[in-house]
Amino acid sequence: MTQDLASPVSLTAVDAPDQPTPTPELEQLYRGFEQELLIPLWTEIGDLMPVHPRSRAVPHVWRWQNLLQLADQAGHLVPVGRGGERRAIALANPALGGKPYATPTLWAAIQYLMPGENAPEHRHTQHAFRFVVEGEGVWTVVGRDPVPMRRGDFLPQAGWNWHAHHNAADRPMAWIDGLDIPFQYNAESQFFEFGREAISDEERTTPERSRSQRLWGHPGLRPVSAPGATVGTPLLNYRWADTDAALTDQLELEAEGHPGTVEPGHAAVRYTNPTTGGDVLPTIRAELHRVRRGTETAPRREAGSSVYQVFDGSGTVTVGDSSWSVSRGDLFVVPSWQPLSVRSEAGSSDSDSGALDLFRFSDTPIFEALHLDRAAVDR
Amino acid sequence: MTQDLASPVSLTAVDAPDQPTPTPELEQLYRGFEQELLIPLWTEIGDLMPVHPRSRAVPHVWRWQNLLQLADQAGHLVPVGRGGERRAIALANPALGGKPYATPTLWAAIQYLMPGENAPEHRHTQHAFRFVVEGEGVWTVVGRDPVPMRRGDFLPQAGWNWHAHHNAADRPMAWIDGLDIPFQYNAESQFFEFGREAISDEERTTPERSRSQRLWGHPGLRPVSAPGATVGTPLLNYRWADTDAALTDQLELEAEGHPGTVEPGHAAVRYTNPTTGGDVLPTIRAELHRVRRGTETAPRREAGSSVYQVFDGSGTVTVGDSSWSVSRGDLFVVPSWQPLSVRSEAGSSDSDSGALDLFRFSDTPIFEALHLDRAAVDR
Amino acid sequence: MTQDLASPVSLTAVDAPDQPTPTPELEQLYRGFEQELLIPLWTEIGDLMPVHPRSRAVPHVWRWQNLLQLADQAGHLVPVGRGGERRAIALANPALGGKPYATPTLWAAIQYLMPGENAPEHRHTQHAFRFVVEGEGVWTVVGRDPVPMRRGDFLPQAGWNWHAHHNAADRPMAWIDGLDIPFQYNAESQFFEFGREAISDEERTTPERSRSQRLWGHPGLRPVSAPGATVGTPLLNYRWADTDAALTDQLELEAEGHPGTVEPGHAAVRYTNPTTGGDVLPTIRAELHRVRRGTETAPRREAGSSVYQVFDGSGTVTVGDSSWSVSRGDLFVVPSWQPLSVRSEAGSSDSDSGALDLFRFSDTPIFEALHLDRAAVDR
Amino acid sequence: MTQDLASPVSLTAVDAPDQPTPTPELEQLYRGFEQELLIPLWTEIGDLMPVHPRSRAVPHVWRWQNLLQLADQAGHLVPVGRGGERRAIALANPALGGKPYATPTLWAAIQYLMPGENAPEHRHTQHAFRFVVEGEGVWTVVGRDPVPMRRGDFLPQAGWNWHAHHNAADRPMAWIDGLDIPFQYNAESQFFEFGREAISDEERTTPERSRSQRLWGHPGLRPVSAPGATVGTPLLNYRWADTDAALTDQLELEAEGHPGTVEPGHAAVRYTNPTTGGDVLPTIRAELHRVRRGTETAPRREAGSSVYQVFDGSGTVTVGDSSWSVSRGDLFVVPSWQPLSVRSEAGSSDSDSGALDLFRFSDTPIFEALHLDRAAVDR
User: Composition bias, kind Basic and acidic residues: at what positions (chains A, B, C, D) (predicted)?
Assistant: First the structure.
């Protein structure tokens, strides 16, 4: 639900409730609790039940050039194979205790594959996607369907699907992986299974379009042979050309005086499962936002956390008390209930080509499925 | 549900149950029933509760050339305007008592608009669509959004949306309208409201794409500004280029040995609501079927009725005991639980270009919503 | 949806649109239509697309004493057995062309079983229920579970369940049957199958509670062994004691100043499927209404039709332009969009015991499933 | 989904993948990762992506007598009031780092209220319930509706409902609280708001039944005045008499040869939301299990965690490698994917009165909403 502006969230904090006066008897009681593995609510409530989410995570930015350089070094030093499974290097939020978590629910990594390399097949209950900020040449083989990866492409992949990667090009390729690893780690829902060491020659082909795209990539149409709803999307790649066209259309509609954008100068599309119209994955939402040159978005907070990657353009991002200049490939996190505002760089011309394009993924589907979603715009 | 082949429908008919021996007392009883407006079950059960649907409708074909010729005559004799509302001429199934019903639930008509003509704005709870077998030049204005109509385009329009038509071309244009008029007539759910006599100049523009298409016509993407599910599809036109590409892809996948078609040589796509993945309208399903040259489909029966229009190619259609040669524009009906089989004409070459393309609409969503759907394939 | 009072339904009727001036050419055109089995919209639109539902059915009342007397005569003259299946005598709305339809979608009948008689087992896709206004002694065997029937009990039974009846008492018993026969007849969705001629001795037992009630008749509780949702309710009988208590509670809450009733003095409960919280049957809604002594309900119209039976008390019912005094057992129909108001008889005391209790069933679930539901209250 | 026995979960572990040979270059790479706040997958995958859930929590039992004694001491030493809010003392799983978490998602506590005491009103997004193993005299006021609490009663309360407690009796009362505090803490979805310091005199009444029970506590019936589905159940108390009757019925049905129990000798009911038929709370499932005297249940594992409290009887519980004798009031936890088996004590007679009754709550609704549910029975 979107927060009603007329009834703002109470800011009276539970914070530090008055505690009973320490006495020997109280001390003895607390020792009794400890012995019996008990903890009273009245000493913990401020942390456990805050008036609004106070994320353990902090806003942070990772620079793409640094990631790319370290990934390339790893490409020369660390082989890819069974056991380690993937040459993926994860963002570790500085406030999450040295865990490889971008946020309390989301995992984000740069993955890197050298020319000719293969990442072996496996499957897991964790939901995953890939997004390509630059380069091409890798095909991800999902359920034996080779899916091409190129700049701007988004590749969701629901849990428990077999998948492998192979680099068919003569140069390395990097992309980002997003998964719900921390969420499933906390919920303790994870299963994992090894697949084949090597994919077949047929799967090593490099088609221009995946079979999934040929079946499911036509707007408003579905094959009559597959009538049901699926948990994750059957469309395995969302091509940049489509995403770009949709964003361009929204800004043009706005220019003509029609609705469509999120707010003035701010277009956004959500990747959806064509069998339901809902999110591509049960636990992860993914979107592409375009902020027109010289535009600043209204600060918006949401229960739940997000990770963003700059796809194109440059600008300034403000998350809570932090503010950074960002450009292509930079990644940053927005912790739960922290306000985010984005300002795209004002260019010399007012053409849209200078827009700031941001890829975003978040844990919102979890919140919506459990009726815990809330959002507020600070105007 | 698809009929389990291991438990075929019982063919023991209730048909003509034995009746009690006529006596004066029985006669008197029956007169008593009549006086009190009562009818016993035991005399009616064979008709009311058959072992499987025995449609009151019969299979029938209407020839496009005849329809077109009569519609053109009407174009010169009958004006379009407030009151009559539309120059639409409906198929009347010969077994439905002179009612303008193609089947017990579906209404199908040819609509015809002369150059420069306008059909006035109105709205109604009946769900509707338009499909264009040939021609162009008319724009349907739905909720003030002008939607172009061209050969192969499908335009669904959920109930209670304002809509008008205007012919911007210098020649007449024909298309077919499909509605759930008989269903809503039987259910007694209909509401109707007049709109403006004339649409505005701005709505009289002739854009290449509707605004709905610009917002909703990108595969797997939706505007973040419109996150909910809608009863009818927000996408107001499904262009032929997309439909054709989807069908071509299915047959090519089949040729490569992959799944996707309904049965060998038979590709089919369903038009869907991108906010739900389900049917475009609550009461009407619409599909485009392509039967490869020289292919015959398996006889299939379904609870509920359909209307088909040949979009391209030619072939032979068998519905129950009827069989017809059909070609472009011809319309035919398939009554409930009557088997349908289609054979496309074998051409001189085996290229797909000679395929038989069939537009289909049916009342299946009603059956599915109420858990009354059944289908069986006679192999 | 409930009609917004600020935007009342337009009362401008399409009714009788102006017709084109008759000319020889027009006559010839109309003959052409006839030959080709075509019917123009402009001559039919007033009937097909009214501004609001104008039911073909009319309000009508059937007197219980007359029904009972005729049913008893039939009990002596017409045997029950295979073929005729049931000694059921249906209400035929006087405006529905001699069809055994209470309304365009609903069938309602009195069923009558003599001492020791058995109605043979069968099943059908039509959804059905039984309601008992007086008497006891019959058990309905649904899927081999004997279900007792007593005054005030409601017994829903979803389509395609095997069922039979047997009268274990030494006197005849009558009750009403409600089915969606006209709806399924129009939609052509019906399947029917004969079962066993005779039920087993074990099924001929006369338990106080059905097995379904023992599993599903505990408030807010369900067996862990049956976790899913079912199309029809698994609870096969709703006992009067529970219904009566729920209605009494609502009126007492109202008397204490709390919400709960539909309107002042008007309590109502809906029978629900405990696996979904929704209606007991996919096509039929059933409710029990209690109107406190001396209370008059606000006129309410609804898209869709209803049948009512007076369960207890007496009063005056007004449906559209008709008005009748009614008492125990009387049945009446409310056609689509006709306003209904009920006034219970003012008694000599103000105790609730003189309330007017009305059993109601309607086709509303069809309308809701297809988003065609509308209602309005005339205040 | 229930695990298919023919395809057991792979037991090949990722566990400790081979690591690249340490070299100075590798060391430098790892230092680079650290500086940039990056962590490679190949060193962490064994912990992050196990072949099946390996819970951080451990099985553990808490003895009711010890809890009760400490709670009573707290009753004399620690006041209840604004800030601390509740005299609740939480189970701290010994393997969860000193956090007051029974499992990674569930919070469980004993709450204690002295005669005449009041716990102030507040509300929070955390979903909560109360279950009473013994005693009576407290009313929980939810949205101004006083709800009685007595032995065997279950009181669910969906997030964001105002609530307070008051002890109207002349003796202390204890019960258990269950909440999804750890889950919402990890997801960072929590909101909290203080309400009134004191409830009104009217709310301080001690009715036999809550208003919610009077409206919603009738089997299979709902008020027509409240037709929609609600996120949490509108029924605020589930009385022991109903739960007991439902369990008794299941075991009697089993004894008569009919289905209904979970497995031989093991009856179980789930508390449900009458507006949906689903779980009472979006994140918490609650059930009451009855294991007949001398019966042992099959070991069952489930993705997700549970907390149990013995309501009556005694027996032996085995969770993974742990095994305990338990009796009334004892609480124990079952971590994710650990097998649980229960053996009730064989009594001197075979009457059901010696059954082992277990209250259970779990996080399963979270898993089902996100399609992450799995279960397996080890036979």
Answer: 201-211
For residue D39, which amino acid is it?
I
For chain D, what percentages of helix, strand and coil (3-state, to nearest 5) are there? Answer: 20, 30, 50
Residue C240: count of CB within 10 angstroms of its CB: 16
> Between chains, do D42 and A87 touch, taking CB under 8 Å as contact?
yes
> If we measure between CA atoms, which residue out of D232, D237, D218, D71 comes closest to residue D139?
D237
**Residue range A212-250, pLDDT digits in tens:** 999 999 999 999 999 999 999 999 999 999 999 999 999
For chain A, domain boundaries? 6-15+23-51, 60-216, 240-377
CATH 1.25.40.340 correct for C60-216: no
Residue to mutate among B213, B218, B377, with most A CBs inside 10 A, is B218
Please report the pLDDT score of residue D354 as a whole number.
81
Task: Give the type of residue at B285.
Answer: R
| Neighbours, chain D (3 or more CB pairs < 8 A) | A, C
pLDDT band at D202 (very low <50, low <70, confident <90, very high): confident
What are the angstrom distances between the C-alpha of B320 and each of A20, B102, B301, B335, C293?
A: 86, 16, 9, 9, 60
Q: Is C44 on the interface with D (CB under 8 A)?
A: no
Locate C204 and state its tokens.
């001929």
CATH class of the C240-377 domain in this structure: mainly beta
Gap between the Cα atoms of C104 and C95, Å rounded: 10
Q: What share of chain D has pLDDT > 70, as a percent?
A: 94
Chain C touching partners, 3 or more CB pairs below 8 A:
B, D
| Rounded Cα gap, residues A172 and A72, in angstroms | 8
Please check whether residue D2 touches C, CB under 8 A. no
Confirm whether A60-216 and A240-377 share one CATH topology.
yes
ipTM score of the complex? 0.94
pLDDT tens-digit map of D226-265: 999 999 999 999 999 999 999 999 999 999 999 999 999 9
| 3-class state of residue B176 by DSSP | strand
Secondary element (H or E) of residue A249: helix A240-255
Is there a contact between C42 and B86 (Cβ–Cβ < 8 Å)? Answer: yes
Number of H helices, E strands in chain D: 7, 23
